[in-house]
Write a structure and sequence with these properties.
Blueprint: H1 3-13, H2 37-54, H3 56-68, H4 73-95, H5 104-127, H6 135-149
Helix pairs in contact: 1-4, 2-5, 2-6, 4-5
Length: 154
C-alpha cells in the first residue's frame, strides 16, 4: 500500500497515523479478533469519534477550509480531489480491499454515503458533543434505516 493510499484513507477516516497499523487495512483492524462486521464497524466509529475530540483543531480547520473553498477555486479543486480519494479509501477500509480494487461506482455510492455520514457526525460532535451520537447509536441508526427500507435493501 502506497503512502498516498494511507494518507487518503487516514484523511477519510479522520484517524491520525501512529505507525501504519493505526488506520487498519479493513474493519477487522478496529475490533477484537472474531468480532462481527457490525462490531468492527462500531469499533471503527469509536475510533473516529475519539479523533473528533483528540484532534478537534484539525477538524475545525477542515470546516474552515471548506468555507474558504467558496472563494478560492484552486482550494476547491484540491479539496474535491481529496474527497474523491477519501471515498475510495473509505470503501477500501469497509470492504477490506486495496484502494485500486474499488470500482468507481462503489466509491461513488458506498464511499459517498460513508463520507456523508462522517461529515454529519463530526458536525454534531463539534457543535454539541453532549448530544452527538455515540458509535453504538450510529450503528443503531443505520440498522433502523436498513430495516425501514425493507426487503428492497437486501
Amino acid at each position: 500500500m502506497g503512502a498516498r493510499s494511507r494518507r487518503a484513507r487516514t484523511k477519510a477516516s479522520g484517524l491520525r497515523p501512529c505507525g501504519s497499523s493505526e488506520t487498519g487495512r479493513s474493519l477487522s483492524g478496529y475490533a477484537e479478533p472474531g468480532s462481527t462486521p457490525a462490531q468492527q464497524y462500531e469499533a471503527m466509529w469509536e475510533r473516529i469519534i475519539e479523533s473528533f475530540t483528540a484532534h478537534r483543531p484539525l477538524w475545525i480547520a477542515s470546516f474552515e477550509a471548506f468555507l474558504q473553498a467558496e472563494h478560492y477555486p484552486e482550494l476547491r479543486r484540491h479539496l474535491s480531489r481529496g474527497q474523491v480519494e477519501g471515498r475510495r479509501g473509505l470503501v477500501a477500509i469497509l470492504v477490506g480491499v486495496e484502494e485500486d480494487a474499488v470500482g468507481d461506482d462503489t466509491a461513488r455510492t458506498l464511499g459517498s454515503v460513508q463520507m456523508a455520514l462522517m461529515s454529519g457526525v463530526v458536525t454534531q460532535w463539534l457543535l454539541d458533543p453532549e448530544q452527538a451520537p455515540s458509535a453504538a447509536e450510529v450503528v443503531a441508526g443505520l440498522r433502523a434505516i436498513v430495516a425501514g427500507l425493507g426487503a428492497e435493501a437486501r
